[in-house]
Amino acid sequence: MSFDSKVTTAKSGKSDAILDWLQMCSGVALIIFVFMHMSLVSSVIINTNIMDTIAHTYEKNYMAQIGGPILFLLFLFHFYLAARKIPFRFEGQKTIWAHAKMMHHRDTWLWIVQVISAMLILVMGSIHMWAVLSDLPITAARSAARVQSGPWLYFYLVLAPLVVLHVVAGLYRIAVKWGFIRDYQRSKLNRFATGLAVVFICIGLATLVRFMTLTA
Ligand code: HEM
């Protein structure tokens, strides 16, 4: 290998590591956002006034008007970084599928789940943000009216579990890939991640039931 090609390889290795690190940081920010978002929206289960007060404070501080578009950019940035490793060509997809079947490895399947859910979340998350942010102010009554109209209930019944699966799988993969946990702790982490997913899927479903039963 020539000196020039060694330098080029070292440089591309370094920039790949930086992009990987940025992907992890943007992923962690989105994981925190999703858990906070689902918890705050679920306040409607306790009392509609709590959700209205949170939404009002959020908008009064321009967190929806400015924070919303910033979040959307972060969302796109994270997808752009992750897309470096997604095989968009059919040949690549066939190879990954064959490897996953051959290796019988749970973490390889988890990666496939993450890639497929990412595509759907990109489209559905964008539609959701557009629908909410173009119809401010946010109130429990308006959200309930939306969830009770058209296909929105089915839309959220798909989006909520999908988002939870994606972020929990992301959390697990970050912990393993960046060495936050050791090999022997993997099964413990797996149990924790499964529990977390079950809790947040239940919170999401309970929120939707509350929106469906709320009368104006
Ligand atoms: C600033 C951006 C966002 C705002 C202001 C916002 C606001 C809301 C509001 C008001 C609801 C109640 C239902 C409705 O009104 O239609 C809701 C529900 C929901 N949002 Fe968002 N959202 C944002 C971003 C996101 C993102 C990025 C995701 C994930 C990709 C997401 C996932 C969900 C889910 C799954 C529900 C259903 C509620 C549940 O079952 O817990 N949201 N959001």
List keywords for this structure.
Succinate dehydrogenase subunit C, 81% helix, 3 helical TM bundles of succinate and fumarate reductases, transmembrane helix, 216 residues, mainly alpha, single chain, metal-binding, binds protoporphyrin IX containing FE, SQR/QFR_C/D
The fourth-level CATH homologous superfamily is: Fumarate reductase/succinate dehydrogenase, transmembrane subunit
Helicity range: over 70%
Structural category is mainly alpha
Number of helices: 9
Percent strand equals under 5%
The name CATH uses for the topology is: 3 helical TM bundles of succinate and fumarate reductases
Uncertain stretches of 5 or more adjacent residues: none
Please state the CA-atom Rg, rounded to the nearest Å.
20 Å
Largest sheet: none
Give the C-level CATH assignment.
Mainly Alpha
Mean pLDDT: 88
Gross morphology: globular
Please provide a written account of the structure:
The chain is an all-alpha fold and 216 residues long. It has a single domain (9-213), classed as Up-down Bundle (3 helical TM bundles of succinate and fumarate reductases), CATH 1.20.1300. The chain has nine helices and no strands. Helix 1 packs across helix 4, helix 4 (67-82) runs antiparallel to helix 6 (106-133) and helix 7 crosses helix 9. The longest helix has 39 residues, at 3-41. The protein is globular. The chain starts with a helix and ends with a helix. Bound molecules: protoporphyrin IX containing FE (HEM). The chain crosses the membrane at residues 21-46, 66-83, 109-133, 153-172, 192-213. Its main location: membrane. This is Succinate dehydrogenase subunit C. Keywords: Heme, Iron, Membrane, Metal-binding, Transmembrane, Transmembrane helix. Heme b binds at residues 37, 78, 128, 166.
